[in-house]
Amino acid sequence: MLLYRSFRNSDPPRLLELWQTCQLGRGAALGITSDAFEILNFSQSYFEPRHLTIAFDDDKAVGFVHCGFGFDENRSELSGELGVICAVVVHPDYRRRGIGRQLIAMAEKTLAESGTQVVHAGAAEPRDPYYFGLYGGSQPAGFLESDPSAAPFFQAIGYQPTTRNLVFQRDLNESRDPVNFKLAAVRRKIDIAIDDRPGGENWWWITRKGRLDSLRFFLMPKGGGDPVAQVTAFGLDLYIPTWNERAVGLTDLFVEEQHRGQGYALTLLGEVGKRLRQELITRLEAHAAEDNIAATSLLKAAGYSVVDTGVVFTKSL
Fold this sequence. Notes:
Blueprint: E1 2-6, H1 12-21, H2 34-40, E2 52-57, E3 60-71, E4 78-90, H3 99-113, E5 118-121, E6 143-144, H4 150-156, E7 160-171, H5 181-187, E8 190-195, H6 203-208, E9 214-221, E10 229-235, H7 240-243, E11 247-255, H8 264-278, E12 283-289, H9 293-301, E13 305-316
Parallel strand pairs: 4-5, 11-12
Antiparallel strand pairs: 1-2, 2-3, 3-4, 5-13, 6-13, 7-12, 7-13, 8-9, 9-10, 10-11
């Protein structure tokens, strides 16, 4: 007999076992410890047991759904209007029995009680409270197309795809660094600086990205002054058992407005690749919205190629 109940403190090991069993595709970290799974999800200050519902067949966990909320415009607290379904998994032996539908219906009810009118399925900024570093690679990007069950399931229960995020990767062992006269001129004017301290990040950044090891890379003018460009690199060590290599995710790439279009972003990505190759990193990953032509063009010019696509689905309540 199936039973549905909310999260209890003794549940993380069985949830991790279910996560490892459910064939979630290349974008799910596998071979991880229960501690890592708990620290990145259930140890969050805003985690609420009622937001995670588990399906049991007697004492066996056979599925779960985890919902939550995005941040307000000040990035200082959660917003009940920004409801998101971050994860839903059902054991392969228990699929096509209505368990997934029931779990989603219960999550929708929970979100609606907090003021959500449109549910997003698939965590992606600004609605990505959980699974940072565990699903999606360098950051949550929706449900990945390499997770074959996700799209058919959500479309069958009335969700529509609304946002597509491209997952780019670069193999540092095979790809060449971008070279041209423009980049050579930029390199003569800048130095690269590295800092391991968070620099003014807000609460939302610290509670998610701050739980992973990170470095910030800066392009600094040789004549002195403020950085002209910067990017944050996150260690993706939790993916080593899945990908069998050391990878780093790049996020928060920013170029000062007066320096855009001059090759600084491409130079920064190239310099970061060189430095990380020296540290025996073999793969870099970065994401960009499919309709962000500037970002996708930059990553392709830097030697990255698309390996997956994350899709966010929505449904009006």
